[in-house]
Write a structure and sequence with these properties.
By secondary structure, this protein is an alpha/beta fold. The chain folds into three domains: about 5-135 and about 305-325, 3-Layer(aba) Sandwich (Rossmann fold), CATH 3.40.50.720; about 140-300, 2-Layer Sandwich (Dihydrodipicolinate Reductase, domain 2), CATH 3.30.360; about 345-425, ACT domain (Alpha-Beta Plaits). About 35% of the residues lie in helices and about 25% in strands. It has helices at about 15-25, 30-35, 65-70, 85-95, 105-125, 140-145, 160-175, 175-185, 195-200, 200-215, 235-240, 305-325, 365-375, 400-410; strands at about 5-10, 40-45, 60-65, 75-80, 100-105, 125-130, 150-160, 225, 245-255, 260-270, 285-290, 295-300, 340, 350-360, 380-385, 390-395, 400, 415-425. The N and C termini lie far apart (about 55 Å).
Length: about 425
């Protein structure tokens, strides 16, 4: 520790989350001191624009020299800048200076988490990042610590509030994707450039972190299959509703039945309305964990926003500060299990497919024959007339992603099939 009478804290980032962290540090100083065993003293706040008014942050603490602050040797450095670069350099500088690090940076941890954990372990400091996934929801530490004695089989959840807000509005109002997205941007739920959210990239980074913790192996963003919600139509949502489903963008990481591999993916998914994840509405997040001994466990709460994220940051900060006071460390990252990371082709799932076909006899028989030839079992069929054509909606039993895709391609080649109007994976079959 820098001083026997206090724990020093350097804050990198003074934006929405950073300002809330600074406020909570100030307003809760007495309580935090009691919980840690020493007062916490903020030594500096690194920002891009020092001239900007930052309510609650003393002017003398503001600096634009993030490199110097990161390497200042504070007991704990809190990184809230986001992105991989230059945040990676700052975190490495902090670790090199003997500081424990608390981060909310999902992109950094998904890309460089393994190396940063190794650096922190070698330096004898803590690296915590509870706020990187699902905001205020206590998730990463329970997954890494509370379930450490169990064997996780699957982690599945809603980890992006923007897409869940959009899909909830589409489900409740029957609205088109483009209209709801425009509303979300006006209301501040979506960024001016929403690509990271709607294309699934934000959720994919979080999926990599969750998979690494759940299965004790290194998983990076490049290992995650990613498919966003841009092509989800009002017709898809209406069809899902008619069949008793709701569409969610899910991050899924699951272990093969023999434990030899994991598949990590993000994609729109039809969820039965009886499933706990179906009840997660608006901008809320939830993660569903299936473990051998614990069974099914769900974590639910606010997944984003300044105050919820700051709450998770403060939780990590208190833990890291306690460790500085007591001279202890948190558990090192567990990546002993070098499990194969499988392509999405190997994922086993069910499908919903909407074929627009000629409205004549024998078409269903033709399609059913091709499904059988490809070894894909049909669980249900629904047909709706559309003038001289019909919408033939087929639900399948579980099969490999590759077999399902090959089946759909074969059916699409039939003369009686005019187009494939919708394809979506299904859980809960």
């Amino acid at each position: 520790m820098s001083d026997a009478d206090e724990v020093t804290v350097a804050l990198l980032g003074g934006g929405t989350v950073g300002s809330q962290v600074a406020r909570l540090l100030t307003e809760g100083a007495d309580d935090l001191a009691a919980r840690v065993g020493r007062p916490l003293r903020l030594t500096g706040v690194a920002v891009r624009d020092v001239a900007k008014d930052r309510s609650g942050i003393p002017t003398e603490l503001v600096t634009d020299d993030a490199v110097a602050l990161a390497g200042s040797g504070a007991d704990v450095v809190v990184e809230l800048i986001g992105g991989v670069s230059p945040a990676d350099d700052y975190v490495r500088a902090a670790i090199g200076a003997g500081s424990s690090v608390v981060s909310a940076n999902k992109a950094l941890m998904a890309e460089q988490g393994g190396d940063l954990h190794a650096a922190a372990e070698a330096a004898g400091v803590d690296l915590f990042y509870e706020a990187a996934v699902a905001g205020a929801i206590p998730l990463l530490r329970p997954l890494g610590d509370s379930l450490a004695g169990d064997r996780v089989r699957r982690v599945m959840g809603i980890v992006n509030g923007t897409t869940n807000y959009i899909l909830t509005r589409m489900d409740e109002e029957g609205a088109d994707y483009a209209d709801v997205l425009a509303d979300a941007q006006r209301l501040g739920y979506a960024e001016a450039d929403p690509t990271a959210d709607v294309a699934g990239l934000d959720a994919a980074a979080k999926a990599a972190i969750l998979a690494s913790l759940a299965f004790h192996t290194r998983v990076t963003l490049s290992d995650v299959y990613c498919e966003g919600i841009e092509n989800v139509s009002a017709d898809d949502v209406a069809s899902a509703r008619a069949m008793g489903y709701v569409i969610k963008l899910l991050a899924i990481a699951d272990l093969t039945s023999d434990g030899s591999g994991i598949c990590v993916r993000v994609h729109p998914t039809m969820v039965p309305r009886t499933h706990p994840l179906a009840a997660v509405r608006g901008a809320f997040n939830a993660v569903f964990v299936e473990a051998e001994a614990a069974g099914q466990v769900m974590f639910y709460g606010q997944g984003a926003g300044g105050e919820p994220t700051a709450s998770a940051v403060l939780g990590d900060l208190v833990t890291a500060a306690r460790h500085r006071v007591t001279g202890s460390l948190g558990a090192a990252a567990s990546t002993y299990n070098d499990v194969a990371i499988l392509p999405v082709d190997d994922a086993v799932t069910s499908y919903y497919v909407d074929f627009h076909v000629q409205d004549r006899s024998g078409v269903l028989a033709e399609i059913a024959r091709l499904f059988a030839e490809h070894g894909v079992s049909i669980s249900g069929v629904r047909q709706e007339g559309r003038g001289d054509e019909a919408s033939l909606i087929i639900r399948t039993h579980e099969a490999s992603d590759s077999d399902l895709r090959a089946t759909i391609e074969a059916v699409a080649g039939l003369d009686s099939v005019r187009r494939v109007a919708g394809v979506m994976r299904v859980i809960g079959e």
